[in-house]
Amino acid sequence: MSERTRITRKPDRGTDDSTVLNSLLDDARVAHVAFVRHGYPVVLPMAFGRDGNRLFLHGSTGAGAFLAARSGLEVSVAVTHLDGLVFARSTFDSSMNYRSAVIFGVATPVPDDEKHDALWTVTEHLMPGRWNEVRPPSAKELAATAVLELPLDEVSVKIRAAGPGEAPDDGEDHGVWAGVVPLRTVAGAPERSRLTDSAVPLPRSVRSLS
After folding, report:
1. Where are the alpha helices (DSSP H) in 9-108?
2. Residue 69 above 70 pLDDT?
3. Which whole-number Å values give the CA distances from 1 to 34, 90, 107, 157, in the listed order?
4. What percent of the chain has pLDDT over 70?
5. Distance between CA atoms of 72 and 104, rounded to whole angstroms?
6. In this predicted structure, what is the pLDDT of residue 87?
7. What is the pLDDT of residues 140-189, one digit of tens each?
C-alpha cells in the first residue's frame, strides 16, 4: 500500500486481496484512464485486458495518450462496477453497492514483438473465442494499433455490498420502504450486420454472451 492507495474514508471497505482485484477487472469491459496532457487533466475510456499482474490498454498509435506514452505516461486507471442502488429512508443515507479499483503507475508501450499476444489478451477479454473465428490482424492493422501495459503494483480496491444502514431504534419511519435494487449488465439479442447472410449461424463467441 502507498500513500496514493491508502483508503481514508470507510477503510473497512478496502481490500488488498489480489483475487478480488483480478475478478473485478476480469468482469469489466471498460477502464477510464486519467493523465495530464498539455497541462490539463484528461480522462479517456479504453478497452483493456489483464495478463497476470499487468493491464493492457488498447488504442490507436495516433491517439494523444499513446503518442505521449512512448517514453512512459503517468496514469491513474479506474474500473468500476455499479452492483445496486441502496434506498434508505432519507436521500442522505441512500447509497450504491459497487466494486471499484484505482490503479496508479507508468504506462509504457508493449514491444512490437509482444503486441500480437497483447491484442489476443484484450480480444479474449472482450469477446472470448472470437480471435480464432476471424482472420488474424494484418501488418498494417498491427502498425496502426497501440497497446500500453501497466503493472498492477499500486492499486486501491474498495467494495460496498450491503443494505441500507438501519436499526430498530434509529428514529426513522419504518413504514417507508428501504432496501436494495440490484443492477447488472446483460447481453441483448444479437443483431446481424447488413451484409451477413441470414443463413450464417451465430458463432460460439456470440452465443456465449447470451
Report:
1. 18-26, 64-68
2. no
3. 20, 35, 19, 11
4. 94
5. 13
6. 98
7. 998 888 899 999 999 999 999 999 999 999 999 999 999 999 999 999 99
- Grid cell digits, residue 53: 499482474
Strands (E), 71-195: 73-87, 95-109, 145-151, 154-160, 179-182
E-only strand ranges, the chain: 14-15, 30-37, 40-51, 54-60, 73-87, 95-109, 145-151, 154-160, 179-182
Q: For cell 442522505, what's the residue? A: 92
Domains of the chain and any CATH numbers = 11-166+175-183+201-207 (2.30.110.10)
Amino acid letter for position 6 = R
Grid cell 471497505 in the structure block, residue: 13
